[in-house]
Amino acid sequence: MAVNPLYNAQFIDHAQHPDYKYQMDDPTMSHEGINPSCGDELTFSVRLADDGTIEEAAFVGSGCAISQASADMMSDLMVDKTPQEAIELCELFKRMIRGEETDVEMLEEQLDEAAMLRDIAHMPARVKCAELAWRTLQEMLEENGVAGTMTATVNAACDHDHAHDGEDA
Ligand SMILES: [Zn+2]
């Protein structure tokens, strides 16, 4: 069998020494994702800054090298992005990993190191491993309603005394 080019030093470093794998203090939201086909599971957390951008991203969990490295690369990419930008990057990553988007130059510009995972498109059994972190982040942002509107988080943090109900739609 040929040596898989995916397993280069950069990839191995993300898998074995992830910078973003830790329990975050006081996250704005957390979400658990599992990939039963491989046994990967991770809980992804983000903290949003006052301007709504992702201030901090981190994950905990266990799984194969691809799921771990992918989560670490994604965390690095998401810092300072808005939730809407984050969702668009998740969509792009999923198109790449399914082999639907193959413009390498654009992928490297948009996804940075995570673009190296594009070869997984040729390894169908591992697609769900690579997608797990991205799917989990996207679900979390969509379920919490923070993309497109900041109403949910603004209200959650609101401690002044105006009425939140009774506003005409
Ligand atoms: Zn896996």
How would you portray this structure in words?
- The chain has helices at 9-16, 65-78, 83-97, 104-111, 127-143, 151-156, and strands spanning 29-35, 40-48, 54-62.
- The N and C termini lie far apart (62 Å).
- Residues 149-160 have low confidence and may be disordered.
- The protein is 40% helix and 15% strand.
- Strands 1-2-3 form a three-stranded antiparallel β-sheet, covered by helices on one side.
- The chain is of the alpha+beta class and 169 residues long.
- It is built from six helices and three strands; from the N terminus they run αβββααααα.
- It has one domain: Sufe protein. Chain: A.
- It is globular, with a radius of gyration of 17 Å.
- The structure holds zinc ion (ZN).
- Zinc ion binds at residues 35, 38, 40, 63-64, 66-67, 129.
- The site of zinc ion has 8 residues, from helix 2.
How is the topology of this model organized?
Elements: H1 9-16, E1 29-35, E2 40-48, E3 54-62, H2 65-78, H3 83-97, H4 104-111, H5 127-143, H6 151-156
Antiparallel strand pairs: 1-2, 2-3
The chain binds zinc ion.
The site of zinc ion (ZN) has 8 residues, from α2.
Summarize the structure.
40% of the residues lie in helices and 15% in strands. The protein has six helices and three strands.
Features:
single chain; 169 residues; alpha+beta; Sufe protein. Chain: A; three-stranded antiparallel β-sheet; 6 helices; 3 strands; globular; binds zinc ion
